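Weekly modeling sync, notes
Attendees: S.R. (lead), two postdocs, one rotation student

Agenda item 3: backlog of single-chain predictions. S.R. asked that every request posted to the team notebook include the full sequence so nobody has to chase files. The rotation student volunteered to paste the first one in as an example of the format we agreed on. Action items at the bottom.

Example entry:
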Amino acid sequence: MPDIYEELERIRKILGRHYRDMQDIEFTIQKGKLWMLQTRTGKRTGFASFKIAVDMVREGILTKEEALMRVHPDQLNQLLRPTFDPKAKVEAIKNKNLLTKGLNAGPGAASGRVVFNAPDAEEWAARGETIILVRVETSPEDIRGMNASQGILTARGGMTSHAALVGRQMGKVCIVGCNALDINYKKREMRVGDRIVQEGDWVSLDGTSGEVFLGQMPTQPPQILRVLVEKTLAPEASQIYQDYAALMSWADEFRRLGIRTNADQPDQAAVAIAFGPKGLGLPAPNICFSKETVSMRFAR
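Predicted structure, as returned to the notebook:
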């Protein structure tokens, strides 16, 4: 039905231009005729929001200021987190290793061995293991185990639960509200249907999509950090960085506030400077001078 496809493409472009946004279109084809049912603004990830906003400015659909308002500040976080290798993720889904899905409370990607309590997480991490802490729900008593883990997975809770709030603050990959998980602390295992994951088994968390996979998957560092901080990727080799740089340059055109950052340690200061603030705020003196030979320069 090439004629109907061409008609659908024509209507899609008309709707996109009219609403000046990416559309989620519903349609049906009956007796060789295309019927349009409805259209609405499509849901998207942080990566997609950046790409769509920047592309629409380049195509003359949006102004720079409108593009800035289309990207939520929280979506910046997704661009600065590690992700799974796309080919590995496709392969995992193909092999039916997708275990369950929950709420994407903390973006990023992490693989690790399952442990079911905070003391074990600390102990396993101390001997060099990579850990995913799995709990029915977390509490303040779990804080040290959460800190020792690469990722946090809970069966209960929402986007404002303890695991979600603390996990985001710590910068941990976090998935909450996985109601399909049946966790048995005594047996040190969790079940999803007839599939069993025991303590020490590998799982992988995609905190951006909320997906939980069986096994270990390779991750890749965010391209923006590779360009700005690690210096292992040339700016011209990363389309993601180029779109990010364009949007940030437009933000500089319209902002009325100067940006300064806080940094308590030298490595934090180096990362902050790489992102181009006007200066660094004074850190807490007890942290700044708690190491024997720490010296830092601070910009006012």
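Discussion: group reviewed the output briefly. The longest strand covers residues 33-41.
Action items: rotation student to repeat for the remaining queue; S.R. to check formatting next week.
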